Amino acid sequence: MASFNLKNICISLSKLRIGHAVTRSHSNGPRYRPPYWFASKERVMTNDYLTQENKQFVEEVMKDKMKVQAELESPLANNGDQSIQQWAPTTRRVGVIARKIGNYPIWSKDGKKMLATLLQVVDNHVVKYIPPEEFKPMKTCKVNWREKRRLGCLLVGSETIDPSTVTKDYCGLFDSVGMLPKKHLCRFMVSPEAVLPTGTPLLATHFRAGDYLDIRAKTIDRGFQGVMKRWGFKGMPASHGVTKTHRRPGNIGAGGEKARVWPGTKMPGHMGNRWRTLRGVKILRINTKHNVLWTLGVAIPGETGAMCYLYDTILPLRKLKSSPPFPTHPPADDLPIEYYDESIHPYDNPTVTYEEA
Amino acid sequence: MFRTLLNKLSTVPSSCGFHTTACLNEVRLLTRLRVVDNSEIGKRAMAEGKPPKVICVYNKKGVGYIGDRVMVAIKGQKKKGILVGLKQTQKVKVPKFDSNNVVLIDDNGTPLGSRIHVPIPTILRTVLKERTHAKGADYTKLLAIATRFV
Amino acid sequence: MALAIRRTSDILCAARWLIRRDCRVLSTLPEKAEISQEVVVRRPAGRRPIANEAVLESRHIYPEFLPDPNPDWRNSLREKLERADMLKRRSQIDIPEFYVGSILAVTISDPHAQTKTTRFVGICIERKGCGLRAEFTLRNVVDHQGVEVRYDLYDPTIQKIQVLRLEKRLDEKLLYLRDALPEYSTFPFDMDPEILPEGTPVPINPVQVKLKPRPWLEKWERQELKGVSNIEEHLKGKDRIRRELRKTPWEKYDLMKQYRKTIPIEDQSEIWAEVHNQLQQLQLSRKKMARKRTFTAPKPQLG
Fold it and tell me: Where are the transmembrane segments (chain B) (predicted)?
């Protein structure tokens, strides 16, 4: 029975492309239509003609379930210290799913103004772990790079939703581990030491202020754009006899022997809505009450309200040097509300002054 | 329709209907400057209504910022000067002046005049100290003849 | 018997109702007014009117507490955190009530200055930005040279903001002072603060400035300025014609435009309900400090 279940999950997983390694360069753009085998998450909503009482009953059941889900204890809390493994610089921890909620300035201790982006870690829970032996991602036609280490796959979901709004396939994924379905789902490749039990909440304290992140998100969808906007071409003069070619690319290739357009030539086309990773983003401040991270800079892909995935950075000089909360920070009540990086001037500190040199 | 669109885009709707942004007031080639020290040549040029023109900005951008060295054409001569106040939009806490001010210097960085009669931004102190090297020109003499900092 | 009593009481009720109805007709009061009175009575302890007053007052005194109305940038949690940070900063330094047209003295800690502090006095010509991005611009003429400095309102290097003269002008932005005669924006650095008696409304200065002859930085004649007296002197016929052409008198009826530029009153009341108490406390402590200062100031003179 168990193996049957597992098989089912594997099938649904492969359908959902969770185990599918996406390797796509900029030359082949986003797919505009999902492939035929893609199992959609959203259900087509139909009118069920339920009576008022039945509707109420369904709502009650839903409420109870949500309540049970919310009251679930973190498995880390009662587990104690017995099974905690040691962190090493080569281990890979799980990341979190966050939402970009805007940006505002934050000042450093020497009075310099910096713009920070706020990322809210929204209701993250570990859904499932697939150990490296069982993890068989769908083969892609070209594999550019293969991980030498054997990494397991940890599924993390964020934002619990009503199961009646999603398809049965998607629900089954969560039902088999006894959770309610999540709105967003992400696959994190983790070392087998960094595994977390199902239902572990991931909080903003998973990271520390002063650490660096890699942030993966979809860029803003700008639609079909010309070369000036898409690639920053200069265009052509507004006057001096120029007609009808003010924003056009001009020449796109030579004649003669190589009388064709070279692959990869920058041309008009769909801009944005692609997965991009911004590496080495510093965490300036953490709010433990609302689970918000302040990160340096405004270049995090996506518009306000977009989801993004946060990982520990892989940049060699900004990698984690000391042991972070491993495998994750257990939920605790006695944490300070705010953590600041040492370069940041908290707003409730007295005014910055300079000493006479 | 087009006109309303233009109006919306610009705070200063222009009459020719093409440029819709305010000018940047950058110090570039052929910008007229105001000499604010009491050097003889500078005073006479300003009094005659022939303010100096920039003929070279000594930086890589070609646009002069506070503390940059410029060469100016003044009364038929070539003189060097330091920009001590700009009209273009400045960063927070850096003063923006109503005119582009210049103080004339010679090749060693010694100012030609003996007094500057307008206020000078304090950030110039840091900028000029950075530009001054042990063996090269010493620009900090300019700070000594300033009367007021803002 | 019981039936009879009930009937008579019914009749009485009906009669009373009729009488009241008649009275209303006679008094010629609009029905609406009475309804609103009833509503006020029913609400517990006048909670609503206070909130409403606060909305009306505070949005002028603290305009930066309202978020940017662009729906693409709005997020309730971010706005909440931002407001909390603003209040934290306000608990450290006293950011007074001021308007465009008020004269301020700002002291900042400046790493470039010799004494490490710089003081600037000037008239506030512009105030913009929402939340922690709020900024204001001061203008003054020092040694016959116009100088403008822009400050972030919540910059932690600002040591003190002092209002030397609290007043408003006729326009929302005084950018035309750049083209006005210099005496309209000249203020001495050693100006004494003028203290208004408590409870007086903020005075509006009806001064009308004189502009220098053209060229101007902007086309002031098209901006419907109230604070400029001699704009017509400098205009030619074609300027007047073009001004007529560029007029957009329909924009004051454009409800959508207004809606997009403002925060709806429901959102505003939520925001003010959140921050009003703390702002009120800060204001009280500021008043206390001011009173102390007035008491302590004469002492050294006596001694």
Answer: none
pLDDT at B22: 72
Count of domains observed in chain C: 1
- How many domains are contained in chain B? 1
User: 10 Å Cβ neighbour count for C195?
Assistant: 12
Is the pLDDT at C210 greater than 90, yes or no? yes
Residue of A110, A290, A354 with shortest CB distance to C116: A354
At residue A1 the predicted structure's pLDDT band, cuts being 50, 70 and 90, is: very low
- Chain A's closest residue to C116, CA to CA, is A354
Interface A-C, measured as beta-carbon pairs within 8 A, has a size of 77
A37 or C177, which is more confident: C177
Predicted confidence (pLDDT) per residue in A201-256, tens digit? 999 999 999 999 999 999 999 999 999 999 999 999 999 999 999 999 999 988 88
- Best of C112, C212, C241 to substitute, by most chain B Cβ atoms within 10 angstroms, is C112
What one-character DSSP code corresponds to residue C228? B
Gap between the Cα atoms of A331 and A200, Å rounded: 9
Mean local confidence (pLDDT), C41-70: 70
Residue C267 lies in a domain: yes
Identify the pLDDT of residue B10: 44
Subunits close to C (at least 3 CB pairs below 8 A): A, B
Q: Which residues are CB-contacts of A354 (< 8 A; sequence separation ≥ 6)?
A: A111, C109, C110, C111, C116
The CATH number that applies at residue B39 is 2.40.150.20
Q: Which residue has the higher pLDDT, A35 or A158?
A: A158
C132 is a domain residue: no
Q: Are residues C248 and B4, on separate chains, in Cβ contact within 8 Å?
A: yes
Q: Is the pLDDT of residue A39 over 70?
A: no
Q: Which chains touch B (3 or more CB pairs under 8 A)?
A: C
B3 touching chain C per CB within 8 A: yes
pTM for this prediction: 0.82
| Residue span of the structural domain in which B62 resides | 25-144
Side-chain half-sphere exposure of A335, counting CA atoms within 13 A: 19
Binary contact (B117, C143; C-beta < 8 A): yes
**Residue C273 domain boundaries:** 45-94+263-297
Four-point Cα dihedral B97, B98, B99, B101, nearest 10: -30
CB A116 within 8 A of CB A296: yes
* C141, part of any domain: no
Chain C residues touching residue A351 (CB < 8 angstroms): 92-93, 109, 156-159
Tell me the chain C residues in contact with residue B95 when contact means C-beta distances shorter than 8 Å: 120, 147-149
The full length of chain C comes to: 303
B60 vs C: CB within 8 A: no
Query: Are the C-beta atoms of A214 and A312 separated by less than 8 Å?
Result: yes
Q: How far apart are CA C131 and CA B51, in angstroms?
A: 44
A299 touches chain C (CB under 8 A): no
Nearest to B92 among C135, C142, C218 (CB): C135
Helices (H), ranges, C203-264: 237-246, 255-261
- Split at pLDDT 50, 70, 90, the class of A355 is confident
Q: Do the chains contact at C147 and B90, CB–CB below 8 Å?
A: no
Classify residue B73: in a domain, yes or no: yes
Q: Does residue C288 lie in a domain region?
A: yes
Domain assignment present for residue B13? The answer is no
Average pLDDT over residues B7-31: 66
In a domain, B11, yes or no: no
pLDDT of residue C34 exceeding 60 = no
